[in-house]
Design a protein that fits this description.
eight-stranded parallel beta sheet; alpha/beta; 18 strands
Length: about 425
């Protein structure tokens, strides 16, 4: 595809270990790419995992689909409805065909796909490249190892538009992992169907070769809670140059407080509403997938307002401008941990604006400054008369900076809160 040989580069220095992994892997898996024409912008939709764990059912998926429509989320771009782990029951020992759980999915997977398509959604399914799926205390099922082509062909015949492939039950040897994902990529290419391919490998070493394999690739472990999300943000500092139209660094699912969600083994999951909004704002500037994994009928109005913010969604879907990475970068601050630290992240937009997030992970309210060093990374043209600063949640201008401005300070509440603004130059 036209993006898989993209030569766009970041001005940020990459870790040598990641570069070595990428170079070696390219020789190992060859020059083939995923040639499917999808993923031009980060994917948006719903994924069941953080909502139901392995307890996903047909009725839950239909319930969520109806809510996506009722709440206006579908019209905002949340069009993928993805059935994560828990739908598969087993593999027929004679035919080697996989089959779904008839109790949890009484209509079958073909009928579910047809239902979602009739509502205007795209249909996502899940498997693992290993011999087993990840499993929970209440669920276990075989993976796709040794059956990649047959499983892909079968799920595509059901109308699948999105495939998430986990790495449980599989080797973590880099070259073997890349080779196995490449086999699945090739099987998808052979079907000629436009299927978004989501790699779930949990490590940043997928990033240098991710665009040769899929449309998105996980860069860290599951984002179950605020500490995990901070780790993902820290990890993504080194990876912006690998994201591009057609292939994205995946920071994992959007989560909330867990209201209304169910399923086994969910200890220590979820975040506060404020942290959930911060996750959303950060994933917008990081050009990460926006896949809600929550009970949309039980979460707060604050959460719905967060995920419905068209201005923030527009930041996420914007493909940036020449001279900058498509994914935003950290402009100021250090790695975050526990209840300490602050960050300023920015993303150059195709409109000439910059979207900037101020994140305060300290306990108390803090005045956070994007100083001159931070400001100059935005490479403003010299003839700017003023800069208009707009708060994307207040939906109004909060400051107008004069022509000599070279910094911006905002007061941000503590506990993982953020503020996201757009900065518009005026000549």
């Amino acid at each position: 595809s036209k993006w898989c040989n993209s030569s766009s580069k970041s001005e940020r220095t990459m870790k040598v270990s990641l570069l070595v992994v990428g170079i070696v892997a390219l020789f190992a898996i060859g020059a083939l790419c995923l040639n499917n024409g999808v993923g031009k912008t980060p994917q948006m939709g719903y994924s069941s995992w953080m909502d139901t764990s392995s307890g996903v059912t047909e009725s839950r998926i239909k319930y969520i689909a109806n809510l996506l429509i009722k709440l206006g989320l579908k019209d905002l771009g949340y069009t993928y409805v993805n059935v994560d782990e828990g739908w598969l029951k087993g593999r027929d020992p004679k035919t080697q065909q996989i089959y779904s759980d008839p109790v949890k999915f009484p209509s079958g997977m073909i009928a579910l796909g047809e239902h979602l398509h009739s509502l205007g959604f795209k249909y996502g399914l899940y498997t693992s490249r290993g011999s087993s799926q990840c499993g929970t205390s209440q669920y276990g099922a075989p993976g796709s190892y040794g059956h990649y082509k047959n499983d892909v062909d079968q799920m595509v015949s059901w109308g699948m538009d999105y495939l998430k492939v986990d790495s449980c039950g599989a080797t973590q040897d880099h070259q073997q992992a890349f080779a196995e994902y490449a086999q699945i990529r090739d099987a998808l290419n052979a079907t000629k169907r436009e299927v978004f391919f989501s790699l779930c490998g949990w490590y940043s070493w997928y990033a240098p070769v991710g665009y040769t394999l899929g449309n998105s690739w996980r860069i860290a472990g599951d984002g179950d809670n605020w500490g995990d999300i901070l780790n993902i943000i820290n990890t993504n500092v080194d990876l912006p140059s690998y994201a591009r139209s057609g292939g994205w660094n995946d920071a994992d699912l959007l989560i909330g407080t867990g209201a209304g969600s169910y399923g086994p083994d969910r200890w220590g999951w979820y975040v506060t509403d404020v942290q959930s909004r911060s996750q959303f704002s950060m994933y917008a500037v990081m050009s990460s997938p926006l896949l809600i994994s929550a009970d949309l009928g039980s979460v707060s109005s604050y959460a719905i307002e967060t995920w419905s913010n068209a201005e923030v969604i527009k930041v996420n879907q914007d493909l940036g401008r020449s001279g900058f990475t498509v994914q935003g970068t950290r402009l100021a601050g250090q790695n975050l941990s526990g209840n300490q630290g602050w960050n300023v992240w920015g993303k150059a937009l195709s409109t000439g604006q910059f979207a900037v997030v101020f994140l305060n992970n300290n306990p108390g309210t803090q005045n956070i400054t994007c100083d001159s060093q931070c400001w100059n990374q935005m490479k403003w043209q010299r003839n700017v008369h003023s800069w208009v600063v707009r708060d994307l949640y207040l939906h109004k201008t909060i400051q107008v900076l004069g022509s000599n401005a070279n910094s911006l300070s905002l007061i941000v509440e503590g506990g993982g809160a953020t503020r996201i603004v757009s900065i518009t130059p005026s000549s």
